[in-house]
Write a structure and sequence with these properties.
Helices cover about 85% and strands about 0% of the residues.
Amino acid sequence: MHALRRLLSTRPVLLLAFAFAVMGDPVSSVAYAIEAALRALDGRLALLLQFLAHLFALLLQVFLHFLLPRFELLGIHGRALVDLGEIAKRDRERDLRAAQIDGLDA
């Protein structure tokens, strides 16, 4: 019993226990918040999901109107990923044309 107590109070075991406690705390907080919301809505899950969808839409609007322009000030434009996709498509088409030309020369 004394050896087990000594083993459980070693630094690595305490660090591991602390890490799991820190990781588990936000998860349990979210679970308690969802439970409290469901209790307040008399268990109507559909109403909670509808509210969460509206909240997500509001957060998306805030991102698009307030945060995205700040990224553009830093030189990161909203079309950056679309532009990268178009560049990749042009490169792929160029490679296909080169392969067809190589096939004709052979």
